[in-house]
Amino acid sequence: MTTLTTLAITDPKFTITPTGIQFNQDLCFDEWDALGQKLAPIGKSIGFIIGDWINYGEKQWGAKYEDALIRTGLAYQTLMNYAYVARKVEISLRKEKLDWYQHAVVAKLKTAEEKQHWLKMAEKHKLSVRRLRKSINFGRLATEKEVQGDPADRGYVTYLALLNRIRRWWARETGKAPVEEWDEDRREVLKKDFKLVVEIYEAL
């Protein structure tokens, strides 16, 4: 079976298959290191490669492209994530030294300028995905101490994390349409759902 890796990397000492690498002979350290240097860029690029492929198919053939997605054997949600990030982060903005996950963090930002700014920050300061996400939430470069010291980064959800999620949700929804244009039923449901937040506020 032909794979992206076999197209780029061939060697009698190992065989690359869809399920891994079979080592046929011993490698010296330099050979093993050289292989890793060739494999790493493919790992960084594959999400964008597949995402661009999906978006091209959708543009060219509409719903018909979904038949091809099924034949990839990859999870549908994974494919949609690849397509979303590739669509939101154009090729001109992508940084070769950053991996797909760092680009995925900035995909939610509204403008190309914002995305470009944070990708440059990630590249310049060698930001991890977690630190990049935290920096975007802060609107400034987060320190390592701030990232490590936040209980939310250890699996706990703090009220600040919840409020930030609500704030992002509100910005997203009002960005689609101002509240004045929402129908009465939706507004009443939301008032009921947010009553608890009001009760917490009034109890303070």
Could you give a short description of this structure?
The chain has 204 residues and is mainly alpha-helical. The protein has 11 helices and 2 strands, in the order H-E-E-H-H-H-H-H-H-H-H-H-H.
List keywords for this structure.
single chain; 204 residues; mainly alpha; 65% helix
Protein described:
The structure is a single chain. The chain is mostly helical and 204 residues long. It has three domains: 1-88, no CATH class; 89-151, no CATH class; 157-204. It is built from eleven helices and two strands. It has helices spanning 4-8, 29-61, 65-72, 76-88, 100-106, 112-125, 129-138, 144-149, 159-176, 184-193, 195-203; strands spanning 14-17, 20-23. Strands 1-2 form a two-stranded antiparallel sheet. Strand 1 (14-17) and strand 2 form a beta hairpin. Helix 5 runs parallel beside helix 7. The longest helix is centred in the first third of the chain and has 33 residues, at 29-61. Mean pLDDT is 82; it is low at 1-7.
List the helices and strands and how they pair.
Blueprint lengths: L3 H5 L5 E4 L2 E4 L5 H33 L3 H8 L3 H13 L11 H7 L5 H14 L3 H10 L5 H6 L9 H18 L7 H10 L1 H9 L1
Antiparallel strand pairs: 1-2
Helix pairs in contact: 2-4, 5-7
Q: Which structural class fits the helix and strand makeup? A: mainly alpha
Structural domains: how many: 3
Largest sheet: 2 strands, antiparallel
Q: What is the H/E order?
A: HEEHHHHHHHHHH
pLDDT below 50 for ≥5 consecutive residues: which ranges? Answer: 1-7
Beta-strand content bin: under 5%
Helix fraction bin: 55-70%
Described by its quaternary structure, the protein is: single chain
Number of distinct helices:
11
* Number of β-strand runs: 2
> Which term fits the overall shape?
extended
- Gyration radius from CA atoms, angstroms: 22 Å
The end-to-end span amounts to 64 Å
> Can you list the strand order of the major beta sheet?
1-2
Mean pLDDT over the full residue set: 82
